[in-house]
Amino acid sequence: MVQFEIKITGRVQGVGFRYFVQKRASEFNIKGWVKNTRDGGVLVMAQGYEKDVETFLEHLRIGPSMARVRKLEKSQMPDLEDFTDFSIRY
Q: What is the bridge-based pairing of β-strands 68-76 and 2-11?
């Protein structure tokens, strides 16, 4: 299992990006959360098997049809949190 903090910038707010992330997380058995940031980006905490997380990241780089991802940065977390599901945080 791996856990990443993922920062996404571009046109990612007001386009259903968090719901897109939650749906993809469910498809790839990813646990964690997603939330909008004050700077107009999206922050994701994603935990799962490395292969599943990499596939999940490929989908996030594209996003929903109205989104335009300009940059995706990922940082591997040294410790795993105890997530039971994937949620949208407000």
A: antiparallel
pLDDT band at 8 (very low <50, low <70, confident <90, very high): very high
The CA dihedral of 53, 55, 57, 59, to the nearest 10 degrees, is -140
The reply to whether 68 belongs to the active site is: no
The catalytically annotated residue of 36, 38, 68, 70 is: 36
Is 29 considered catalytic here? no
Of 11, 18, 29, 70, which residue is the catalytic one?
18
Residue type, 71: K
Q: For residue 44, which of 9, 79, 15 has the smallest C-alpha distance? A: 9
Give me the DSSP letters along 56-88: HHHHHHH-STT-EEEEEEEEE-SS-----SEEE
Q: What is the pLDDT of residues 48-79, one digit of tens each?
A: 999 999 999 999 999 999 999 999 999 999 99
Q: pTM value?
A: 0.97
